[in-house]
Amino acid sequence: MSTLLASMIAACLLLEINVAGQTPEPGPPQTTTPPIVERKTTRVIPDVPDAASNSWSIGGFYWVTGGSATLLAGSQSTDPSIQNLVLPTPKDQTPGFRITTPAGKYNRIEISGFQTNTNGTTTATQDLNFFGNPFTLGDKLQTNYRIRNVKADWDYLMYPAPPTSKLRFKALFGFEYIGARATISAPLDTNATTAQGSRNLFLPTLGVGVDFVANKYIRLELRPSAMAFPHKSYIIDGEASIVVSVGHIEVVGGGRYLHFRTSPNSDQYVRATLTGPSIGIRYTLGK
Q1: Is residue 124 in some structural domain?
Q2: What pLDDT does 249 receive?
Q3: 251 is in which domain, residue-wise?
Q4: What is the pTM of this model?
């Protein structure tokens, strides 16, 4: 009996040892990794878009021109005293065109041009000679005068880029063509022949553009540019305008100024100034 009791106690002890050996030991406490939050940068977009820089446009303008023009003797003239003539004042009927295209981020290319024609009469107060054609004292001179202009500008936004403020500054890199043609005749002088000559200039131009975008309907633009070479041709060109935008239509009003001289290194050259108010309209695409 005692032997059976001892055997049962030994079996219980052995079972307890086996169960204790199978119980896993507690491991180190587990930590929960917090989720990774992606930080996204919010891009600041101006609430007043610059439609002229970000879209195509096509339009026209009407320039009420005034000013002066003179045909002058150049450095190759054999008798400068007889080769000067005040040309007629340009008439106020000067139509023109303007086209803009996007040119990279916040920049644009602008192409514009115009043509003005005028005529007038005067009396020769001395013997004269224009483009190799002589006119005598007392001749009634009929003068026709034309100016043609084409200009291409790259408007490069300098500050701020992107255009997040209302005041913006641009660099203007351009190329300009001006052609001046004068036709002089003496209809009452049967011995006189018609004199006609053209003087042209092709110049690169540099300028600064300033825009003030008041709101999405109104902005102000200033565009002065110039180029000059000593003893050669020069050009000074400028425009100030206010733009009123309604949908795809923009109405532009302001003033324009153009002063130029063709190269004096010839027998005759032209110096002229055109100035006056202008008004225009253009249609914008993709606005």
Answers
A1: no
A2: 95
A3: 51-119+148-176+203-285
A4: 0.79
